[in-house]
Amino acid sequence: MKTPPLSVTALSDPALQRPPAEAEPSNPVLPAAAPATFGIAEAFMQHLQPQIARSELQRREIYRLRHQVYCEELHYEALHPLREERDPFDAQAVHCAVRHRRSGVLAGTVRLVGKRGAHDRLPLETHCAQALTHPSLLPHHFEPHEVCEISRLAVPAVFRKQSAAAAEGAIVAGGFSEQELRSFPAIAIGLYMAAITLSHETQRHHVFVMMEPRLARGLAFVGIRFQALGEAIEYHGKRGAYYIDTRQLPSQLAPAYLDLLQVIAGELFPRPLTATHPAAAWP
């Protein structure tokens, strides 16, 4: 049975509204409320562009951004001579990015790691197995082609710190307009929306992630309610393993963020993959 396109109608199906049965950077800023005269979705799309990396050139641009954030800014990984941060899971991942429209530079990236067979493992199964203690919601409880992990979320400091200051009402240098600054807090959540869209289009509805508990609480505030799979562990700070079935998400999202999900889905997949072949985007 084919999964329907990501639309308000399809994802608001009452049948999907039942209750829900690798480390990221420190808690990114989440948008609080839409400006009175300009919604979150409109502001996001005016200044930012969600993309899927479809070429090696685009993927290498993402690896360089990851090196900047993970190796140079946060020092989570060692510096690499090529200034590219990559690992073996990139071979089984689809990479998403958000690009700042006016400058053309990447404002953030995230990847969705999938399994091609029962022998494959997700990053959190490899690096954080001790965090997976839930009795029934673990990756191996589902078919390999139904699971994925949101991983390697990275927003560079020029956008991460600007957005934090903008949210506090500070005057920030850097050449950005006030309107652009208002859209930057939505970068991190836009990346999550892009990953969720990709999970839906490829029918990998069982999504896992390692993240800070406070980020999970922040995402729940806008309606992205991940379920904890165990106690938080020490992994570049306190991180916990979380799960969500993305088919249940639209019924939980606040209206402004449902709008954001819809516009990102339309930008990434103007023609749904599920109309042809759901694995078309996967390596």
UniProtKB/TrEMBL annotation:
Record Pfam families: Acetyltransf_5 (PF13444)
Organism of provenance: Hydrogenophaga aromaticivorans
KW Calcium (keyword) present: no
NCBIfam families referenced in this protein's UniProt entry, alphabetically: exosort_acyl
SUPFAM superfamilies: Acyl-CoA N-acyltransferases (Nat) (SSF55729)
Protein name: PEP-CTERM/exosortase system-associated acyltransferase
Keyword Acetylation in record: no
Molecular function (Gene Ontology), one example: acyltransferase activity
Entry keywords, A to Z: Acyltransferase, Transferase
Superkingdom: Bacteria
Residue segments, region Disordered: 1-30
